[in-house]
Every structure is written in structure tokens, then in C-alpha cells.
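Re: weekly structure request thread

Next one in the queue (315 aa):
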Amino acid sequence: MKTAIPKGLLTILLALWVSSVQSCKETNKNEEQAMALHSEKAQKLPKKSLSEEFKAYWYAGDAEITSYKLELARYGEIRDGKSVLIYVTEPFLKEKQVKADENHPDNIPVLKLNATKKYLTGIYPYSIMTSTFYPVHDNDHAVKVSFSAQEWCGQVYAQLNNREQFDITSHSYFESEADQDFKLEKTILENELWNKIRISPESLPTGDLTIIPSLEYIRLSHKELKPYKSTTSLSSKDGISTYEIAYPELERSLKINFTTAFPHSIESWSDTFSSGFGKNAKIMTSTATKISTLKTPYWRQNGNKHISLRDSLGL
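Done, posted below.
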């Protein structure tokens, strides 16, 4: 037997349905406007033109390889080691976010930095590498950042991809970190600033900022990967410029020293932070001092006869 719906109730239900439809439409409209605004902002970022000096140096078919002597704080003690910064330009695929095999108009030209560190902690070794891919036109955040560390306890890996947001994937052998996938709103990346120094140091951001610390620092200190409040400054003296980032919450300060004149080579850096854990933790400073620089197409120098090239880098 059918039951008739009272006219008043029917009117209320109809009004609620109309309101719901309008609300959904408004939500969709807001989302579309936000996406359009994001796209518009991305399109409006101007590409900085490349100087002839820049092209001659970075598009000569070589990589720039610079070695450094490390005195690195780990577990509350200073460890001796070596670091190598390898800068090279290459074409990058925007969608797949990997190096492009072929030239294509949609490729993003990037300045890639592969930064390596090797040192011993007692009986066992650490091997660390961070790769940062930054647009040479200095018109966006790094397209991608990846980090890995290997030591006898295990290995960890983290990757950040620049899409609608920063997409983060992280893997660790520690239970509290384990496998993670999450997103962050876009902001300045500490990792990308090392590339920006080489491209456009005069436009380095200064003042009170929010910055996502390097993937290496986050993983080795077991901190949360997120933006932290910071204060940054840029100064110059006797041909050397210093870019400093201070993170009050982390009790950390990073100083990067580079030549004021082109090609703005990284001469040294120091990183002050709390080393060790629990009651044994103390504020210590890691330093890196330049040994030598070599410009060469290393990817073609993989024979035994090329091993001597490492001697020129003090490796």
C-alpha cells in the first residue's frame, strides 16, 4: 500500500535536494577555480634568459665535478670523509620526471646536482647520494629530488616529485618511519637552493621564510619532513658570497660559501646542528672544504685507464 508524502514534507525535501546540488556545483566551481589559478600562476612564472657565459660553461658537453674534504658530525663525533658535487645540464621529462632519451619541445632543461658523501662510523661505512633536478630558467621549484643512504644497518630512500603538490615517497628500515606516501604544499626546498646558487644567486630568497630542509638532514636526524620556519641571509666579502639558512626550531644553521663571480662555484660549507641522541646529543658543526674541480664528460671515462683522473680530484 502506497503512503502519500505530505505536501509540506515534499517541499522541504525538494529544497534540501536543490541546496545539495547547488553546494556540489559551488564546490566543483571552487575546485576548478583553484586549479585554474594554480595553472595560471605556473604559466605566468617568467623564464629567465640564459647568458652567453652560462651557455658556454654549462652546455660545453662536460660535467663539473668538485671534491671536498669532509669533517662530518655523526653520533656526537667528527668523522673524516669525502664529498663530491657533480653538476651537469640535461633534458628532463615533465610527466615521467626522468632524464629524457630524446630531444623534444616539452622537455625541461635542468641543472642536475648529484651530491655524494662517504665516511666511516667506526667499523661500518656510510654512502649517501642526493639528486636535485632544477630548471635552468629558474622559473619553478625543483622538478624532482631523490635521496638514498646505505650503511650496514640498512638503507633508506626518499623522493619528492613536483606535481600539483609535492608528492613524497619515503622508505626506511626503521619501524617508526617505514613506508610513507604523502603530499606537501609547495614551498622553498633547501635542496634546490644549491642549484639556484649556480644559476641565479642574486635572486636567492632572503628574510623570514618557510623551507623544507634537505632530505639528507631529515632522514639522518629522524625529523618530520615538512616546512620549517627559517631566516636566510646573503652576504659577500673578498669575492666570496655566503648564503645562510637558520632553522630555530631545529637548532640548525647551514652556511654555503661560493664565488661571487660566475660560475659561482661552491667553495665550502658548514652545517651546525644537534648530533647524537638523547642525553648524549650536542651541538656540533660539520664542514666541507674544496679539494679540486674537474670539468669532463665522466660518463665516457669508464675504463681502467681513466682511474687516474680520481687522483686529480684527491679521491
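Confidence is low (pLDDT under 50) at residues 23-43. Residues 7-44 form the longest helix (38 residues).
Next request, please.
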